[in-house]
Amino acid sequence: MSTTAIYIKTETTTKKQAQQVARELGLSLSAIVNGFLKQFIKTKTVTFSANDEIPNARTQAILKQAEKNWKEGKGSPIFETGEEAVKWLEKQGI
């Protein structure tokens, strides 16, 4: 079997933590990455969770404003059909 190298950039702490978890599972980080690549090829999908990600300050501000607008009843209505949406946009002068 012929092999090749892939070089990626990641944060130092991310690499160290990933190596530690791989070791705990009795695997190398290369084995983990190869497994992900093979799954990616087979399924043609990318699956990961962003549950632990914290939005940056700009995104937090946008979310806060969106929640405020929603509570105040501001926003576009929900449409049943595309025709309804077009009529509403035309009424808005858009």
Topology:
Blueprint: H1 12-24, H2 29-43, H3 57-71, H4 82-91
Model description:
This protein is an all-alpha fold and 94 residues long. The protein folds into two domains: 12-43, no CATH class; 57-91, no CATH class. Helices cover 56% and strands 0% of the residues. It contains four helices and no strands. It has helices spanning 12-24, 29-43, 57-71, 82-91. The longest helix has 15 residues, at 29-43. The chain is elongated and about 65 Å long. The model has no long low-confidence stretch (mean pLDDT 90).
Which class best fits the helix and strand makeup? Answer: mainly alpha
DSSP helical segment count = 4
- Distance between termini? 60 Å
Arithmetic mean pLDDT: 90
Uncertain runs: none
Total individual domains: 2
Summarize the biggest pleated sheet.
none
The best one-word shape is: elongated
Helix and strand succession?
HHHH
Proportion of strand residues:
under 5%
Radius of gyration, in angstroms, nearest whole number: 23 Å
Q: What oligomeric state best describes the polypeptide chains here?
A: single chain
The count of β-strands is: 0
Helix fraction bin? 55-70%
Short description:
The protein has 94 residues and is mostly helical. 56% of the residues lie in helices and 0% in strands. The chain starts with 11 loop residues before the first helix and ends with a helix.
